[in-house]
Amino acid sequence: MTSEDDQQLISECLAGNTDAFGKLVLRYQDRLYHSLMLMVKSPEDARDLAQEAFVHAFRKLDSFRGDSQFYTWLFRIAVNATISFRRKSARQKTTSVEAAREAAGIEPVDERGGVRPSSRMEVKEEQALVRRALSELSEEFRQAIVLTEIEGMSYEDAADVAGCPIGTIRSRIHRARNELREKLRILLKEPDE
For 62-89, how does the pLDDT look when each residue is reduced to its tens digit (9 = 90+)? Predict the structure, then answer.
């Protein structure tokens, strides 16, 4: 299942050429970071988790069987690191909803009306609202949407990464889309005049 190019780099790395793993890092670091950002909502935490995932993958590369894409395997490692991170964070402190929104970098939307922002600003505001709605989904639903809609993984790969049956992923995606649609409907509703 692994692409020939990825498999070649993995083989070279296992043969002692660590530069080959560096090429895998360069190939997947941005993609992994952006997906983790959607899951943890903190640039620093996303960077730390991505780095942790790559270090773990490097150490355990000999256990990679090639049954799935390398990135799918790497992403599963990152998801496990994220789960562990969240458990540690939950024990250390409880974060308010407002603090979580602030950490996500979501700016409040100006609903006063008046001069309409440029098209570019409208797009940024809509993207912020989508990120906000996504962040309000449960972790399971958010993960399912990130894996399939943003990462473009097949349902089979998403189920593998999430560690659940494919039917569960399908159900989570369906329910997540419905919840997301409702949250966006509320967030995008024009203020009453």
Answer: 999 888 889 999 999 998 888 888 777 7
Q: Domains in the chain, please, with CATH?
A: 1-94 (1.10.1740.10), 97-193 (1.10.10.10)
pLDDT single digits (tens) 127-139 = 788 888 888 888 8
Nearest to 130 by CA among 79, 191, 177: 177
Question: What CA–CA distances, in Å, run from 115 to 111, 112, 126?
Answer: 11, 9, 17
Q: What is the pTM of this model?
A: 0.61
Q: For residue 126, give the amino acid letter.
A: E
